[in-house]
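#structure-requests
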Amino acid sequence: MTQVPQTFLDALAVRTWCGLALRALGRAREEIDAINVYPVADGDTGTNLYLTVESAATAVEAVFAGYETGSGEPALADAVRAMAHGALIGARGNSGTILAQLLRGMAQVLADDGDASHIDGQGLRLALRRAADSARQAVARPVEGTVLTVASAAADAAEGADGDCRTVARAAYEGARTALAATPAQLAVLERAGVVDAGGRGLVAVLGALVEAFTGEAVREPVRELPLRDVPARELAAPDSLLREIPQPHGAVSVPVSVSAPDGHAPAPARVAAPERCADAAAPGGPAFEVIYLLEADDAAVTRLRARLDALGDSLVVVGGDGLWNVHVHVDDAGAAVEAGVEAGRPYRIRITHFGLGDVRTGRERPPRERTQRAVVAVVPGEGLAALYAESGATTVLARPGEPPASGELVQAVRRAHAREVVLLPNDADLRHTAAAAAEQARAEGIRVALIPTRSAVQGIAALAVHEPGRRFDEDVVQMTSAAGATRYAEVVVAERQSWTTAGVCQAGDVLGLIDGDVAVIGTDVTATARTVLDRMLQAGGELVTLVVGDEAPETAAAQLEARVRESYLAVDTVVYRGGRQGTLLLIGVE
C-alpha cells in the first residue's frame, strides 16, 4: 500500500499503522517463531504478536466502519482507544500481552485530549515513554534483554529526537533496532541459542510500521548481530483431562474454559481441577502450563491477584484497567491460577496451554506425530456446544458474544487439527469472509480445506452428524453441505435497542425471534416467542428439532417446547443441548 507522508498522528494514521504492523508481522512471523527461546521456547511468539495486532486492527476498522454512512472520520481518541481495547481482548502469549500494554500506554496519552484531531512529535514522545513505563510496571519481575528493554530504548531514543512525528518515530525505531541487537549480551539463553529476543524483534517490526505510516517508505529490516539459527519449537501436548476427545495437535493446545454464574452476575465459587503435571514438563524446573484469561475486576482485587499469582509461578503479566484485565502466567497448578481469577472477579476466555518436553539446546525433540487424514474445525458460540463438537471429534474455536474470532485464530485451529484435509464450519453468516481468508492461508500451507458456509451452529451440528472420515473427501463435503443446507435455523434473542425490523418496530427489551437471519416475531415472553417461531418453522415440515438452550433462557423453556412438539407434531423428534453463555437465549434447528 502507498501512504502519503505526514508529520502528525491522527485517526487515519493509526488505522494505517495497524494495517502495516499486521503486514510486517505477517512477513516476520515464521522468523520470530523460530527464534522464540525465552521465557519458554514454544515457538509461537510471532504468531501471538500477529494475532494480538490483528485484533487491534479489527477494532480500529470497526470504528471507521461506523463512519462509512456519514461524513468525516473518527477522532484520534476513538481510534487509539479501539486499538488498545482490541489488543487487550485479543492478546496472546507473554509478548502479545506486553504489546497490548504498550498500546494501552500510548492510548492513555494520545486520547488524553478527547477533542484533539491529531498530535505532534512531542505527543508521540510522551506516548512512547508512557508505553514503555506501563509495560514494565505490568510485568511482575522484569528481565533485561527482552521486549521491555527494547521498548525502553525506543522511548529513550524518541525523547532525544527534536522534530515532528516522522523524526520521533524513526528515532524510536533506530533505538529499538540497536537495543534488539544487544539483547543476546543481556540474556544468557539468547546468547547460547545465537538469537535476539523474539518479542523485541516483533516490537521492532511494529515500530518500523509506524515509521512507514508517517513516511510512506519501508524501513530496513533489523540487522542480525548474531547468526540466527532455526530453533525448533517443542511439540506441546495437552493432557487428556483437558482435551477430552480433541485430536492431539503438533503444537500448543489452547483449551477454552468457562467460569461464570448462570445469571451473568458474579461467579459462584468454583473449583477447577488442575491436571496432574506430566513427567515431561516444559523444562527442568520450569512451570508446566501457561494460563491466560480476561478478567473483570476492580483495581484492589487485581492487586491481590498479582501477589497470589506471583507466588504460584513466573512470567506473570497483568495488563489493562478500567475494570477489564488480561492475565498471563506460567504455573504448575493451572487450576489454582484460574481459581485466583474467580476470587478476584469474573474470568472468561480462559486458555490453558501445556508445555511439552523438548531440548532446544541440543535440538532433541519427540518425533512429529503423523498427520490424520481428515478433521473438522468449527466455530461455536458457547462452551456447551464446544464440548458437544469436541466429543464428535471436531477441533473448536470458541466465539464469545461480540468477540468473533479473527482469521488468524481459524488458521491456528486448522493447524492444530493436524490433518491433511480439513472441513471448516464457520457457523455464522458474518464469518464467511473471515473463514474464506483462513481457508486460503491454510491451502497455501499445503492443507486441503473445504469451507461449508454454515450460518448457525445447528447447521454445523447437522453437518457433523453425517461426517464420515472414511469416505472420499469430496463426497464427505457434499453430504455435509447437503445436511447443513437442509437445516433451517432460528434464534431467540433480546433486543438491545429500539430498531426497525422486518416484523415491525421493536423496543429495547423485546424478545425477537429470527428465522434464517430475519426477524419474524416480536414478543415479550421468551417461551411464547420461541413457540411461535417453532410453529412457523414446522409448518413447512420437518423430522427433527434441535434446541440449544443458553444460560440466560428460562429454565422451563426447553421442556415446554419439547412438549409442544410432542403434542402437536407427530413423528417429529426433539433433541436438547445446553449451549452455555452463547449470546442468544435459544438456537433452534429444524431438519
